[in-house]
Amino acid sequence: MGNGNLMIRMIDVVFILLFGFIAVSQISKAEAIEPSKSTEAEEKAPEGAYITIINVRSDGTFSADGGDLILRSPEEVNRFLVGEMKRAKKDDKKLGVRIRSAWDAPSIKTLAVAKVCRELDIPKGLDVVKIEQF
After folding, report:
1. Domains of the chain: which residue ranges?
2. C-alpha closest to that of 53 among 62, 61, 44
């Protein structure tokens, strides 16, 4: 019985050494990871485009126009964005949306704005900011 236990311990040591060498060889081959590219947002705002900022506040409401317009539901956000799309189309420009969410805002509200943008086929970007209130 004693020899069997010794053999199991030796096998454990061999496996530990094997995994150690594998880990070291993987670390020595590490390369710089390229960040992924967004499929929706461009590197910078397109020239001649309207960028509308929708803020998602800590209490779950939305604000636009620099905080002057308070929107209480995704349906109101939808109506606001449809109006912005009409304004942009009238001026022959594109519309983009930046969704700025407070760090403690309900994520379901942030995703609701993203869903509205997707339904309206508006390019969007998402920022999470840590400030007291918009």
Report:
1. 1-31, 49-129
2. 62
List the structure tokens of 100. 């700025």
**Spatial separation of the C-alpha atoms in residues 67 and 55, rounded to whole Å:** 8
Q: What percentage of the chain carries pLDDT values higher than 70? A: 79
Q: Is the dihedral of CA 81, 126, 67, 107 positive or negative?
A: positive
Q: Per residue in 84-100, pLDDT tens?
A: 999 999 988 889 999 99
pTM (global) more than 0.70: no
CATH of domain 49-129: 3.30.420
Q: Could you give the dihedral angle defined by the CA atoms of residues 102, 37, 89 and 51, in that order, rounded to the nearest 10 degrees?
A: 30
Amino acid letter for position 96: G
CB 71 within 8 A of CB 61: yes
